[in-house]
Amino acid sequence: MSHEDPLEDVFAPFALRISCGPLSMRFVRDVDVPAIAAAIHEHGIYSPGRAHALHAALG
Fold this sequence. Notes:
Blueprint: H1 6-10, E1 18-20, E2 23-25, H2 33-43, H3 53-58
Antiparallel strand pairs: 1-2
């Protein structure tokens, strides 16, 4: 198989990319975690003013 990324040879789904217009999805890798954590820290996970499922259930 021999891809640029050896993980794709071991676990084929790492090679999967799904794109539609400007949106592109792929498996999250370890190198993606710092950027994801920074986005969560900056923007949060939930919309302001909306309780997530746990808060809604415990209400």
